[in-house]
Amino acid sequence: MRKFILFIICFLSAFDILAQGDISSDKLHIIPQPVSVTEEKGFFRLKSNTGIFATSQEAAESASFLASMLNKPTGYRLKSELTHVVRKDNSIMLRINQKRIGLLGNEGYALKVTPNQIRISANTRDGLFYGLQSLMQILPPAVESRQPVLNEIWQVPCVDIQDYPRFSWRGLMLDVSRHFFSKEFLLRYIDEMVKYKFNVFHLHLTDDQGWRLEILGLPELTSMGAWRVPRMGSWWSFAPPQPGERADYGGYYTQEDIREIVAYAQKRSVIIVPEIDVPAHSLALIAAYPGLSCTKLKYSVNPGSRFNHEDDVLCVANDSTWMVLDKIFTQVAALFPGPYIHVGGDEANRSFWSHHEPDQELMRKEGISDVAGLQSYFTKRLEKLILSKGKKMIGWDEILEGGVAPEATVMSWRGMQGGIKAAGMKHEVIMTPSHYAYLDLYQGEPLVEPETYSMLRLDTCYAFDPLPEGIDSKYILGGQGNLWSESVPNDRQAEYMTWPRGFALAEALWSPTNKRNWPDFVRRVEWRFQYLDEAQVKYARSLYDPVITGLIGADDSIKVKMESEITGIDIRYRFDGTDPDIFSPIYGVRPLDIPKGATQIRVRTFRKGRPLGRQINYPLKELKDKDGNPVKSKS
Ligand code: ACM
After folding, report:
1. Is the pTM for the entire model greater than 0.85?
2. Beta strands 227-228 and 340-344, pairing class
3. Ligand 1 centre and the CA of 436: distance in Å?
4. Beta strands in 46-133 (DSSP E)
5. How far apart are CA 58 and CA 95, in angstroms?
6. pLDDT digits over 494-548, tens only?
7. Of 5, 38, 137, 285, which is most buried with the most CB atoms under 10 A?
């Protein structure tokens, strides 16, 4: 009887999913879309006695990793073993190619599923790891469960996949300064990012609102710089610290924490890129060591209040600045084994330098004619320091101003132009243009989203192409999504802002351009939501909500426009203060006239008669045009 009830429940929930949308289970749903997929008939069935085999010691780590990923949801006790026999029934075989297959490169893999065996092969351990990720994506959604799922049929469709990435730099950045995220959360974030084959985790470790890295010999950095007064509400409007107020919001990573994070990431083919943002965004550093600023005044770590951005800039001419930077970057280089250190360089208000005599004197001595040149001097000197530690330097695209450091890698965020210019000068480039890749922006109708600014919908993210036409691809390492955390006060919100836009970026960075297809991507995203539910990862369903704007029609009256980024859904609305249902009018293509006396429009999306998105109750007097300005009729 219990079995029968379970069957009915499974049947009903499968029906529920299908009824909610056009998401079908008969095609594969891998994100990012692989280079080549040939679907074949039949299934491999994972059982409690399936063998997991590595054909060499090099593949053994991946085999035991796979066993541990499968054991949790299945409740099986699968073990991995070394074998030299290539064919075994009821087995998963992992192999590092003895003879390198050129096409697969350093990160590609081949995954072949037959009814008797699953074979994953690659030239490298990284490639094998990505093969495992694709395998996990073609298992049922329950594979993401944190507890054993009994009665699941662990079926894998037969398929032949050959896959490799378009770009070598596939990054996500998390700002751990504006809000602090625990070590445990960073590990969980790495777990999620690698499922979509991201391989760079950039940590924005320092800013005006907190210093997050222990540096031995500079204790005030973490005893003072890591803590600010707690505030809640709208960022930039927070009250500054009050006299005597306790600064108890914050935290930092000890060097031991960093070693743990780095080792965890390394095991998952991820490099951590640390960012120490200088010469600006340095108020937390200056709060700890006031002697490093031009003013030498006493400052507090900023809690998210408006402040004078002249104050967060280091004095370039001060020898102590260089002594402290040497200490910091020496330890950063030793802690992070990856090849790159990010030094920020963005948004420096250079005006103190123009009326601070020691900086003026330095400019005269060095023959520097303007303050942009002084920042260039700072960055070039810093690059020498970074290179002397055996690392390459990355900076935001402002480092191009006043003359770029000779070997710098440029991270282009103010659009693609900085990256294009840098590539033209034969510098390596990582594209992170804010209008495609800033994950802190709204992803749906602002009225129902947690407060932030501007707009980056999933379809815009999906349109990102890091390689501008006519640019030599060898200089474009890849791209990255950046999650600034001013409006991200907790772990769950960091997940919400990352997924599913992270899926879109993953596909932009991995999949060949001819394999990218928005409707098919949406189909896969919707299927993937079930996996996120199983994994208890928060994500945004904002793609189901229309964005509502106002406009002035030819008759000078205000009209309501609604835009959905996906097709196949009905946007239903009511102006009379009641909730829309499947009997309410459907929005077509023409903006709506507002009925006399209406004060509100209530909107919700439906598919196949079932509600999909959130209900939006929009006060008509708050209608804004597409640029965010209030809509006013002339009459
Ligand atoms: C930045 O967004 N200031 C790099």
Report:
1. yes
2. unpaired
3. 13
4. 51-54, 80-82, 91-96, 109-113, 117-122
5. 8
6. 999 999 999 999 999 999 999 999 999 999 999 999 999 999 999 999 999 999 9
7. 285
